[in-house]
Amino acid sequence: MLRTRKRIGAALLAAGLVFSQLGATAYAVESPAGTGLCEHHTAHDAAVCGYVEAIPGRDCEHEHTPECYTDELICGMDEDAEQTATDSDAGHTHGQACYALDCSHERGEHTTDCGYIEAVPGTPCGYVCEVCAGEPDKDSGKEEPTISGNGLTAPEKTGTETGEPGDTGTITVTAFDGIPDAVKQQTVPAGTTLDGLTLPATLGASGYVVSDDTDPEPEAITITGVTWEPDSPWDDTAEQGGYLFTPVLPAGYTLADGVELPEIDVLIGGAVTLALQGGVLTVTFDRNGTGGTDEDNNEMKTAIETALSGDDKADVATIKLTGSAAEVTGYNWQYLIDLYNESSGWNSLTALDLSGMTNLTTVKNDTGMVKSQQTKLQTLTLPDSVTQIGDSAFNNCKNLKLTELPGGVTQIGDFAFRGCTGITLTELPDGVTQIGNSAFSSCTGITLTELPGGLEQIKPSAFRGCTGITLTELPGGLEQIEPSAFYGCMGITLTELPGGVTQIGGSAFAHCTGITLTELPDGVTQIGGSAFAHCTGITLTELPGGVEQIGDFAFYGCTGLDKIIMEPTTAPTINDSTFENTSTGLTFYVPKGGTGYDSGGWENLNTVEYSPVTSISLPATLELRPNGSGTLTTTFIPSDATFKEVIWESSDTNIVAVDQDGNVTAVSNGTATITATSRQGRKTATCTVTVKDAPPVTIPVIGVTLNHSAYTLHTDKDPRSFQLIATVEPSNASNKAVSWQSSDTGIATVDASGNVTAVKEGTATITVATTDGSKTATCTVTVKTDSSGGGGNSGGGSSHYITTTPEPPKPNHPVLAVIELPVSVGNGTATGKPDDGRTAAAIAEAGKDAKAKTNGIAVQYDAKTSLTYDGFSIVIQRATLDRLIAAKVQYVILNTGVVDITFDLAALQEIQKQATGDITLTAVRETGLAGDALAAVGSRPAYRLTVNYTGADGKAATVQSFGAGRVTVGLAYKPAATEQTGGLYLVYSADGKGAEWLYQSSYDRNSGNVIGSVGHFSVYAVGHRPAPAFTDTVNHWAKADIDFVVSRGLLAGTDDATFTPDGTTTRGMFVVALGRLAGIDPAAYPSSRFNDVATTAYYAPYVEWAASKGIVSGTGDKTFSPDATITREQMAAIMQRYADKLGYTLPVAREAEIFADEGQITSGMKKAVQAIQQAGIMSGKGNNRFGPKDTATRAEAATVLRRFVEIVIDPAAGGWGQNDAGKWLYYENNKPMTGWKQIDGTWYYFDAAGLMQAGGWQEISGKWYYFYPDGAMAANTKIDGYEIDPDGARKE
User: Fold this and answer.
1) What is the overall mean pLDDT for the chain?
2) Beta strands in 433-534, from DSSP E residues, in sequence order
3) Phi first, then psi: what are they for 109, rounded to 5°?
4) Which of 149, 309, 886, 950 yields a CA-CA distance of 20 to 30 A from 826?
């Protein structure tokens, strides 16, 4: 039965080949004589319609001989058992018709003996009748084209309602008909005149008449009166050369976009012949053209026949090509390579030498026709200029001996060397980027050990059956292993595949018994049928999480498979044969909670559930001494994860090395990152390891003394001042820095050098304190006035007046007591308990600070550990809680590094009221979000926060709310590169499904937390809602502020693409933003108290709310003027009232600034301007101006709103910020820094107003420093001819 099928298939294939080849040699069809004829044009006239009758060809007269048939029987009878005659029929005897036909003439490979001549096409009639042109088509009702290619003009028409073209007379050509190959490629002898060329005067095309029609339909047209121009003047005396002719169209024609004129290629003289010498036929080949039109009509045939010049081809052993052609393609190459066919008649031919073609870059046979027995070619010489060995270039050259390819080759085409069993390549050129389909299929002699590193594509079957290649790795740039690419390559010994591979095609590595893969790249999604069939050496232990499909027989016969961990949570599609004939004990570990592993063929396999790794963690940092060592321990989440194998890697082994047990060894000073990757799940964690020398021995300060313990000064005579000198003990103390303080600066002052100056009568104490150890010494200073009177005070009745200028408010930050909180870590959770004794001592020490009397104190607990954790459980003893409340701390901070929590005093008092006994603060990572909550948060951190205690009944209880108190929550988060920090929110979820965006939350650059103020605990997470990408804010100084307010819906763009940052802000617009910030319900304010605020206006409920709260007032009786612009001083006044009416406290974070235009501030708004300026919400505009009457821009409004959120609502915010003039400041605890500040390892300097210095030289404390445009201080360099020391100071 199988043999019968093969015979039927062979018969059908033979028939298909015959018909396909007949199609390739079909004779030219004459143009129909009736084309263009009508009752007005009854006969063709070449001068009018361009018609030229076709010249007939001649049929092939070849008669088949026995050599035209193969040995393949197609009659259906057995080859060796003819039927025996019976009574009813005679026995079958094989005749010629029983065998398959394989005749070159049937394939169009004609010879001069068979009489075949190809027909020459004529020119179709291009006539369009001027009378018929205006008449409707009798069949369709449509009119004929109104403009003719023969120059005739159709009758005029009136009206335009029918969509007829206007009278422009212009035709747009959309395409040209093809020109016959015999005309398109012409080879003429030397001396041919221009008139002797075939240059048609008529061209067929498609086009339409230019009109008002927006979508005209192209119609067939004929263009007459065409002339042709060569690319250079025609020389009929030239012996050889080439010309390219393009048509010149008559007036009235234009070309549509992308349409190119047709071309005619004319070659004079073909090739120049040298002689046949010593068996070498030398041929000059200068022009490839389009590669010829067929096997008998091509430039190569002409060149070789001319070169042979009557010599006997049987004497030619080598063909040597010379000339300037850059490529040999199509029929030119096919004709050349077919001379090496076993039946070509060139009996001595064995070599091909292309070394003389120094411009040659490409050889290929792209005709689609290849002969199977190119056995004569044995020796090949290629020039170094070759870059592309194209399709079927040496297909089936079985006896070709080739040991190397030119070094410049970059592409090897489809079937380029298929079946070339004699080539013995050991390497491919480094520049090869593509290897085509079956390019080296069955090349058993090649012994490649590696492939070029830049190889990007290996097409199907490229190395199929190449048993001699011994690759150990594949190029890193490969993304796909095509089907059968390495089928049967038993010598390759791959241990891994490139990391970027995503697809492995069918049979890609079938029968590659030498490969020993243990894993596949993480990105693999598809494994084709039989991809690894019979690969007995592979021992895969897992399949990547992205695998979606595994084909039939993909791992058939892979007996080395024993245990496979399935990473995909959804089972890949398989077939019953996918893992057929593997080891009987093969076990598949499938993820707990995965889907699809109970059907689709998986139910027939041995599966066991495992608990997947969801995350891992390492200690954040590790410090080692040179040659020291340490061990890192990985924490797995969940703790019961089934597979806990870890892969370790160091970012710089010159600094630290790590083994596969996590043992870290210091090599040299520096910083490197250790990365741990779980083998199952590919989860990663990092630890920053710093190697540095041990710090020098520190000698502590034990005391300090002064040169005076008491001193008397005078206000009206010397001594009015003196210097105190501090002596720090011991003399070799490491840190001898001291600070000075006067108990009453109204009596005596002291500067940083200990110089004391009298102010007025009285007594003051001067105290010196050491930075190290806080050791102190004092000096009592008495100030006297010894004047004996005289003058106006001696008589009675006169008065003594003292005029003083009140000082502006000073910054009111409380004194912060920081207490270290040791914690232990287990199962990813940090546990600890603040020491009550240390808390009491810290409160007492902070209370000694003079500012504590006016500003109060605050307490911060810092959790300390070198281990990494993802949640915490911190116990606050009842005694500690009562102590904090008794001390009336303004707030208490729990600083953990994953979640920071700040309780104000009212919140602490509410906890004290609700709870009994100790309280426990917990933060647990929330992993079960769903619905809107999951959509808002994604993979960002989410925590369930609680305040727990044990009730009087002994049962566990939870503090439900904080009453009138507030708690600030900060979740640690590092924004992704694509995330706008202004678009980060705190998201609240009561049930893990719903999501409430806290619009008053924000991202704090200083702490790296997303911060928000809350009134109760539940699930809080980080969400991101980006602002639109406005085209006019990309480089604006307020872009981050604009993104912040737009993402929260406080302000909107002026259209979809623009924000208009420098546009004005109206009163209505600003009040809407405040209402949205406050989160009001607009429906609760349906009425309007102002006549010019319609209840239907978008701002109406917000104006009514703000007026009812006393935040804004009208501009007149019953008027609000919502569309009037708002000034900067008005904005400051509204923000001050907004804070007051909604219960917010404006911090006094900065010294009051006296602006140059202070007198222009409306008197009733001066206090508001000062309060908003001192809070850091608004600042000057440059040149010490506030600009009170300047109209507030939309960008300034955005900046004020964001600063209010970050400074007032979320008081832990800090980091970089810009003032209204675009100047940079840096905030810590809401206070702009002044003086020197090192930020992220770079030194900056901020002046007394907090403005960063940038762009040039600055003199600071008598020394010159240079600051780059970004504010960074220059150090250890040379600028403007000056040497700069490592500390940044200029050498003078």
Assistant:
1) 83
2) 434-435, 457-458, 480-481, 503-504, 526-527
3) -95, 75
4) 950
